[in-house]
Design brief:
GO terms for molecular function: beta-lactamase activity. The protein is built from eleven helices and twelve strands. The chain is α/β, with parallel strands linked by helices. It has one domain: Metallo-beta-lactamase, Chain A (4-Layer Sandwich), CATH 3.60.15. The strands form two sheets. It has a seven-stranded mixed β-sheet, covered by helices on one side. Strands 8-9-10-11-12 form a five-stranded mixed β-sheet. It binds zinc ion.
């Protein structure tokens, strides 16, 4: 197996089967423990295996929603009569790719009026400062993640000590969001749900978008990922992290989107859906089952890690 495919298989295995034993994995790749012990290794493996820095063609998904991210990292543009909303900016080094994608679609990055985010880690908040500077956009961030956005990740509960690896250029927050707040521009209304766990202010977004005379509920879930080294129960990474994850699962289980998308493109099988959309149109993006399975999968991964910490046989 080529190195890249091997690393991807490893990442998938780590994400989906945390109780997988090291001896079941190929011998060379690092274990979850290795990745927990070395943030630089974790980032380097992830960015190579999951194509974080690889350019990809931008495209329209549904109604006013466009994909402008990299091959592995989502960045979404909502185009309205009043300007654009940008959700996520990928890595610090990939701001230029997002700008290029927006221009390629025929839009002006300077028309970005509002920037919002999924969570304050470098693979999603990396180029916020650059794009804010370029556009003069208002930056709206969920309380809980405001400090980390403004100090470039130094206050992150897990990666604060590794901010030289996991940090990103800081940006000033103009609007602090609370759960249930809405961000509105033109006829696009996005509702923000605080879904903490992965970071203290992880944010899931829900909106209604019309396309071809039909209205679709579109969700962007976040907060459920558990990185190597996170502690949930014993010596928790932050007090209350276990309860935060549980509340986040409940919040996300109540949502019933027609269409969903996540901050990592592999999570919602973007490539396959994008190819299908060429012939099927919007129907290719409808995936209520996929959403339910994604949340359920993340919940069982969480329970498995909780049990492992407690020494419960599985
Ligand atoms: Zn993250």
């Amino acid at each position: 197996m080529p190195g890249k495919a091997l690393a991807l298989a490893l990442m998938v295995a780590l994400a989906l089967a945390p109780k997988l034993q090291a001896q079941e994995l190929p011998s060379q790749p690092p274990t979850r423990e290795d990745l927990a012990a070395d943030a630089r290794l974790f980032v380097n493996i992830s960015r190579n295996a999951l194509d974080w820095d690889e350019p990809t063609e931008p495209f329209r998904m549904v109604g006013p929603l466009y994909f402008v991210g990299t091959k592995g990292l989502s960045s979404f543009l909502f185009v309205t009569s009043e300007g654009h909303i940008l959700l996520n900016t990928a890595m610090p080094e990939t701001g230029g790719l997002i700008v290029r994608s927006i221009r390629k679609l025929g839009f002006d990055p300077q028309d970005i009026a509002i920037i919002i985010n999924s969570h304050a880690h470098p693979d999603h908040a990396g180029a916020i400062a650059e794009l804010k500077e370029l556009s003069g956009a208002q930056l709206a961030i969920m309380e809980g993640d405001v400090a980390a956005i403004e100090d470039g990740g130094r206050s992150d509960f897990h990666y604060g000590a590794d901010w030289q690896v996991m940090g990103f250029p800081p940006a000033r927050v103009d609007r602090v969001l609370r759960s249930g707040d809405t961000v509105t521009l033109g006829d696009v209304v996005l509702k923000a749900y605080k879904t903490p766990g992965h970071t203290r202010g992880s944010t899931s977004w829900v909106t209604q978008l019309s396309d071809g005379g039909k209205v679709y509920t579109v969700a962007f879930p976040d907060g459920v990922g558990i990185n190597p080294g996170y502690r949930l129960v014993r010596e928790p990474s932050y007090p209350g992290i276990e309860g935060d994850y549980r509340k986040t699962h409940q919040t996300l289980e109540l949502l019933q989107p027609d269409i969903w998308a996540a901050h990592h493109t592999q999570h919602f099988d973007m490539e396959r859906k994008r190819q299908r959309a060429e012939t099927e149109g919007v129907a290719a993006w409808i995936d209520t089952d996929g959403y339910r399975k994604f949340i359920a999968g993340r919940r069982s991964a969480f329970e498995a890690l909780v049990n492992a910490e407690l020494g419960v046989e599985q």
